[in-house]
Design goal:
Elements lengths: L18 H11 L3 E5 L3 H6 L5 E6 L2 H11 L10 E4 L12 E4 L3 H10 L6 E4 L5 H11 L6 E5 L8 E5 L9 H4 L16
Parallel strand pairs: 1-2, 1-4, 2-3, 4-5
Antiparallel strand pairs: 5-7, 6-7
Length: about 190
């Protein structure tokens, strides 16, 4: 694991992130393969703590600003691959963490299209009802694959979706846990 080259508690914040966002994002992405949608201050942080960083944006302005700034970072843990495109890409690399920020109109598409690409998905702006609604729309049909869902993780603006390795399917425990210590709740002589 590559050691983090910054102290997230004191590093200068260069984007629209809270201190808690910075601390948690760095901690969750430290030494990991990260794919990011939405370049900005997070890109400058992640370049200093990730093993790999593939970053995408739809804004030429942000792409140009971040490309210039990333090239000036002396203590990177990885060389970010920055990609500009008007639409959601057809595919992205598999990763440990998928970090979704960027253009509001594309966030739900990113989440839905690339839900399977990472065991941990982090969505920024988890205090905005619209972002939370988009997450619920994608999580609802995939609920058996979600291990935990943290809204405003550790008092931050991060919404975390931690996925299971395999779906947890429903089972009738009255059938699968048959033993002498289980009374049938539908039997006529059942007593609570």
């Amino acid at each position: 694991m590559t050691p983090m080259n910054i102290d997230p508690k004191t590093v200068k914040i260069q984007g629209d992130l809270s201190r808690s966002d910075v601390i948690n994002l760095c901690r969750l992405c430290d030494g990991k393969r990260v794919v990011e949608f939405g370049m900005g201050g997070s890109t400058l942080l992640l370049a200093r703590c990730c093993a790999t960083l593939d970053s995408y944006d739809t804004s030429e302005e942000w792409y140009n600003r971040i490309t210039a700034k990333v090239s000036q970072i002396p203590d990177k843990t990885c060389e970010p691959k920055l990609t500009l495109g008007e639409q959601v890409p057809e595919d992205i690399p598999s990763c440990d963490v998928l970090w979704i920020d960027g253009c509001d109109a594309h966030r739900g598409l990113w989440l839905e299209k690339f839900f399977d690409k990472a065991p941990l998905i982090i969505v920024h702006d988890g205090r905005r009802p619209w972002d939370v609604s988009q997450v619920f729309e994608v999580v609802r049909p995939n609920f058996s694959r979600v291990k935990t869902l943290h809204i405003n993780y550790d008092e931050s603006n991060l919404l975390l979706i931690e996925k299971r390795l395999s779906p947890l399917e429903w089972e009738d425990w009255n059938v699968t846990e048959r033993d002498d210590n289980r009374a049938n709740p539908w039997a006529p002589d059942f007593v609570e």
